[in-house]
Amino acid sequence: MNYWNRVMRSISMKNANLALAALLCCGALQAKQSDFSEPVYVDAVTQTAELQDNRLTFNQDVTINQGTIKIKADKVVVVRSGEKGSEVMTAYGKPATFFQILDNGKPVNAHGDTIRYELKKRLVTITGKGQLKQEDSQINGDVIRYDIVKQKMVAESNQQNSRVKTVFLPDQMESFDKPTNGKKE
Q: Which of 115, 147, 170, 172 has the highest count of CB atoms within 10 angstroms of its CB?
């Protein structure tokens, strides 16, 4: 019995589904590290600067680019709290979208009513009808947090009758427990 089968049998079926979702989605998400050394470009129809509050507001057809990262929204509010690089960008839209090419060359797409991107922490939080998709696997939840550095994703449901939903393709499920080095465990 290989390692993953032993792990899955040692936890309840409910938790196994959660663990499997986390392993498949988070293990595959390895952010393109060169993106974070790139400048951040913001393009919009209008911009308002509130210099005393260290706040910039961009409106109408807003696009943010940093390397392969692309965020699109109706409105983006950027707040800097102190040091350079501590900016927090909050994108609002119906939906706001997030796109990135990972180190393995595969794209990640996400959308929600709000996308909060904390540059220094490299943390993306998607709220309001959130969806994160890589290849044909997809996670839906009221709140999706993705820590780019730790490669950790957490999806949550805020409402009583709402649940986090994950979809996997059969091909991805079959290859999940196969070793990548060609050796049997």
A: 115
Q: Name the burial class of residue 22, with classes exposed (0-12), middle (13-18) and buried (19+) by CB atoms within 10 angstroms of its CB.
A: middle
Six-digit token string for 145:
């947090």
Measured distance CA(129)–CA(106) in Å, rounded: 23
**In this predicted model, what pLDDT tens digit does every residue of 93-102 receive, in sequence order?**
999 999 988 8
For residue 86, pLDDT beyond 90: no
Q: How confident is the model at residue 56 (pLDDT cuts 50, 70, 90)?
A: very high
Handedness of CA 97, 22, 32, 40 (dihedral sign): positive
Closest CA to 41 of 72, 80, 81: 72
pLDDT at 179: 54
Q: Write out the CATH class of domain 3-176.
A: mainly beta
Alpha carbons 142 and 144: distance in angstroms, whole number = 7
User: DSSP secondary structure string, 116-176?
Assistant: EEETTTTEEEEEEEEEEEETTEEEEEEEEEEETTTTEEEEE--STT---EEE--HHHHHHH
Residue 112: what pLDDT? 95
